[in-house]
Amino acid sequence: MLGDVVKIFIPTAGAFFIGVGITPIATYFFYKYKMWKKKVRTEDTISSTFALIHKDKAEAELSVPCVGGIIIWVSVILTLFLFYFLSFVFPNSFFGGLNFFSRSQTLLPFGILVLGAVVGLVDDVLEIIGKSHITRKSAWYTRAKILIIILCGLIGGLWFFSKLGMVSIHVPFGGELYLGILIIPLFIIVALATFSGGVIDGIDGLSGGVLASIFGAYTVVAFLNNQLDLAAFSGVITGAILAFLWFNIPPARFYMGETGMMPLTLVLATLAFMTNSVLILPIIAMPLVVTSLSSSIQMFSKKYFGKRVFLVAPLHHHFEALGWPSYKVTMRFWIFGFMFAIIGVILSIVGK
User: Fold this and answer.
1) Are 222 and 271 in contact (CB under 8 A)?
2) In 3D, which of 227, 226, 225 has the Cα closest to residue 349?
């Protein structure tokens, strides 16, 4: 038991310290090459009053790098290969037991992480070179991103169905629900749903704290399922996010960007299936759910009723518009997310 905990704890701590270690180097290049957005977002979901109050904050975005997610996925990649290399060189030593790269548990989420990171980076680069009209207003580009997410979901669904033989999902307190080949479209739907929660990246420290609690919860869920490699992988992502968060708390040195949000949300969907806890995912990831729903409700209400439900969407900006300081919104979202992460872990235990 102690050895299992060590296998998870050491790579997790390693990812954190690697992330903290590479950040000064990454930050130097971020600022040297001015890797920030060249135009502030001005969507119609933001009221003129809110935009006026936060004018200074909006202008500040033009001098803060938007590719901080690189810190996260590079830390994960370096950590994974470090412990794989050590186990290869010293197979019969202490390091031999720390390798968590395996075909059955971590190959798929690792591949999804890398693919999502690259696609997200393309989105951020377009913002950096001043092509925001493509990323924000181009219908074909939006369709292309959705198509890529669907493709990732298709790959994941096919992997689970054909390679892992997964044909059902667990219903808490209700046993298994047989889906057969329908597991594939379900994976696509979950991937799209988790990606939509990426709009939570809007306040210094918000996304990092929320995602850390979510991936921390899945570290525990995977550990309780005796999926030690997957638990270590989830822990490594948690450690990498905490390293990012160390520098993202106000005032943020950089923002996560699509190169961080896209791979993390897609991996989150993968973890939910691999731990057979798909129906618990909305609980563990409740902050992402309410954030995504707030944007959807706002757009639906404006389109069909011509009225706003929230002062500003997504939800965290609504609270800012009410007069809450941004740090208070962040801290309360952290608490909210932590509590639902605990509830989700408990349900994964008692609902079996």
Assistant:
1) yes
2) 225
Q: How buried is residue 341: exposed, middle or buried, by Cβ count under 10 Å (0-12/13-18/19+)?
A: buried
Tens digits of residue pLDDT in 11-42: 999 999 999 999 999 999 999 998 988 776 65
Q: What is the mean pLDDT of residues 203-208?
A: 92
Provide the strand spans (E) within 179-277.
Answer: none
**Would you state the structure tokens that stand for residue 47, as one six-digit string?**
């009221």
CA atoms of 287 and 210, how far apart (whole Å): 7
Largest CA distance in the chain: 67
CA distance 309 to 301: 7
Radius of gyration of the CA atoms of the chain, in A: 20
Q: Are 87 and 99 a contacting pair, CB within 8 Å?
A: yes
Please say whether the beta carbons of 134 and 146 come within 8 A. Answer: no
- Tokens 């759910």 map to which residue? 289
Structure token pair of residue 33: 């090459």
* Pick from 187, 206, 221: nearest CA to 291: 206
Please give the average per-residue pLDDT across 279-300, as a whole number: 94
Q: Could you say which DSSP state residue 177 is in? A: E
* 13/15 Cα distance (integer angstroms): 5
Taken in order 156, 15, 128, 312, the sign of the CA dihedral is positive
Tokens of 190: 């979950």
Q: Scan for tokens 């202008």, then name that residue.
A: 59
Cis peptide before 314 (omega within 30 of 0): yes
Q: Is the dihedral of CA 299, 301, 304, 305 positive or negative?
A: negative
C-beta separation of 312 from 326 below 8 A: no
Rounded to two decimals, what is the model's pTM? Answer: 0.93
Amino acid at 188: I
Q: What is the pLDDT of residue 57?
A: 61
Token pair for 18: 């690697």
